Every structure is written in C-alpha cells, then in structure tokens.
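Quick start: read one record
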Amino acid sequence: MKRLRYALALGFALAIVSRASITAGAEDASRPADAGLDHFPESADIRAAYWQSFFTASEPELLRRSAAVVTNEYGDFRLSVVKSGGYLYTIVTALQGPPPKRGEPPLATQGSWVLKRSSPDGAPIQAKVFLRSDQSTFIRIYPDGDRSKLDLVVYGGVLNREVPLPVAFDRAFAATMADIESWTGSLVDWDLFSPRPGLYREVRAFVDETRRRLPSLRYGDDGALDSTGQPVYIATGLPQTGVAGLNCSGFASWVADGFYRPLTGKLLDPRALAEKHVATRATTSAERYEEDLDPFFGLDWTRNIAKALLDARASSRVHGLFESDVRISPFALVAGDATAQAAVNGSSAYRNYPAYQLDLGYEASGLKALLYVLAIREPGNIYLASVSGRNGNLVRGLNRHYHVAVLAPYFDERGEFKTACFESCAETSVEAMMGRLKKDCVHLVRVRAERDYDPPIFSASRPPIKREIRDQPG
C-alpha cells in the first residue's frame, strides 16, 4: 500500500523522445544579446521626427506606404504599418542581426515600439515598447487625460500598473528610455533590466555540469540513491531490482548530493528527506490523508533537502524548516499570451495572480516572471520546485504535491536571461512546465549554487534512454 501511495503521488507517464528534447535549454547565440537599459537601442529621434508624417498621418495615407528602414546612431529601424482587428498599428522595429531571408523581421525585439490607433479616426490608444526580445516583456504607455500612464509587464507578470507619467501621450511617445526611467524611478524598479552576468558563474557551471551528466541517468519509479550511493526504493528503503533509476524526487536529491557531498563527504539519506512535518501544516484539513496519500511528500522532500544543505554549510546553528522557502510577491496580475494582446490601457483584461500560499507556493502561470525577478534579486540561487494540484480529484478539494523539479534561472555571459529546467533525469523547459501545469501550484525552496558541485556517479546495467515528462497521476 505504501509503495502504491508513492506511485500515485509522484508517478509519470513517460514517452521515448529524441535527444533534441533533452537539450531544450540550450542557448541560441545566433542573434545579438539584449542590452541593459543603459545601452538600450534608442529610437526617440526617429519617433519625434516622424510623429506628424507617419505616426499621426491619416489611415488611407499610411496604408499606401511601403515599409522603410531608417538609421540612427543605435542602428537600423524599420517603419511599417499593419491594420488588424479594427485597429491601425504603426511600428518602429529595432532590427537586430542580419535581415531574414524571407518574411517579416521579428516584431518582439528589444527597442521596438508599436503605436496602436483606433480605426478610422486614428486616435492613439497605447504604445507598447519591448524591453527585451520577448513578446511578453514590455511597457505599455497610454493616454490619461492631459497626461499618460505606464504598465510594466515582465514575462507576463504585471510588475507595475497605472504608473503616472508627468507628460502628455505624444511627449511620452517621443521620449527616451532614460526619460521614462527618470519620470518613474521612485515607483518602478528599473534595475530589473540591468543584470550583472558575473554573478551567475556558479549557476551557469551547475547547468553545464548537470547537462553533461544527464546521459548517464535514467528514470526509475520511486527510485533514489541512499546515503551509500546504492539505488533504493524511496517508499521501503529496499535495494532496487532490475534496471536502477531515479524518479523526480530521487533526481532532485541526486542534484543536491552534488553540493552536499563536497561539504560533508556523505550523501543525503532518503529516509531523512522523506520525514513528514505534519505539525507545521498551514491547515489540518488534510491530516486524515497524511498516512495513506502522503499529499505533502514533495513539499517535505524539498524543504528537507534545503535545510540539510543549510545545516551542512553553516553548522554553527540548526536552521528552520521554512528558512529557504520563497515567499516574495512581486506581482498581483498576469497577462498571458491572449490577455497580453487584449489588455488595453491597464484594463481588466489582466488576470489576478494569487499571492504566495503557505504550503502551496505560486500558481504555475507566473513561474517564468517569478524566476526572472528572483534571478535579479537573488543571483546565484537555484530552486527546488514541488508541484501540487488536485490531480485526478482522488479526494475532492485535496491538493497533493505530486512532482519535483530543479529550476536554475540565470543570465549568460551576454546578459541573456535563461531558465534551465531539469525533471526526472531529463531537461525540459519552464515554458513546457507552465503549459503542462496550467493552474497547479509550484512551491520553491532556495539552494545556493556553490562552486564545488559533484553529483555521485550513477550506473545502470543498460544504456540510458531519453524520455519526455508528462505530469499526470501514475
């Protein structure tokens, strides 16, 4: 019964896939890196010069024009017009790298501005400015009487909403990023867009080394290494039979062993990692299910790992169980792919994003935005994630922690934001997790990425296979 409990809580349906899926986090070095805001590709002179002749020109006149490329000291910018959905869009695209061999250049490049106007009267509705080369990271500027306002959206998370600007919309549209920063500096944390790549060396090394060792690992239901390095079943502690492997929890402890062993000369004990902390639960409503369903297994496992690493690194005191929990609340709204297009002028098209919930964490829809903020504010950390949801509705209203993953947000040497995601002996992506998990919750605990990282050698009797993760009850 106990073995079945773990299989239900942490099992996966696994399918064989190509090696390409394992390297989903590999960096794309083919395009120029996004710059910090102090080197933002600036087009203010172009927007000011063409305000009358292009941005406020009549619709019939604009639709007769062909796209044109203009140049300033920051590079080339493409002026173009699109009519769609009853709106007119006049666009300043920052051209990065060589032009595409066919088709339109990508719109969501750092430094691009898009003016949205109503049709046919041409009244300005909003301007969207891409702060990074990502369609979900931008500022939105919109009229507010004789002034204007600003929203800041980072990877779909609405970090600021309705920030007042002391100028009219036409003046704001012709402003530089330095102007916008100076007008809003007391309300907006612009340091979020000026990372220091040198602070992420250890995380980059961790990602590289973990990727290097993935081919030696294999998935195994309920599998982990014990304190002597032998493959065992988590539920019973007995040696694994047949081909050995690690499940999602066992893989997370294998990663943690990479930091724990250089500090202590030992490996983590899965019996200690599985210790329950029933008395610490936020509510007692799930207590009746603790023995049969173990709904907090992943939460206890990740918290116990984080505490063990803290105790090993600073043995002068015993650390608290919650000490490594992530509990920040950087945003209260999200704009997903659909709402990011629909939301206008800070409207209700944004969706409420729940604050951190004790023992549950964060809704998965905001995971990438949360990791970006954490990477900037807490450089050098990786995170153990425990995923909970009402999978299968086995018990109505009961959230169960059924999956564990390892997340590593960082900036590469070029200043590009990256998020490595490792699950059950494979590399997937944060975007894939968000797509799978929908409104499930993700609880995070911090683990410092130290220079000494050496996970134990794992050997099995047959060559490893490559697998794709799909979360669902076992």
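The longest strand covers residues 400-411.
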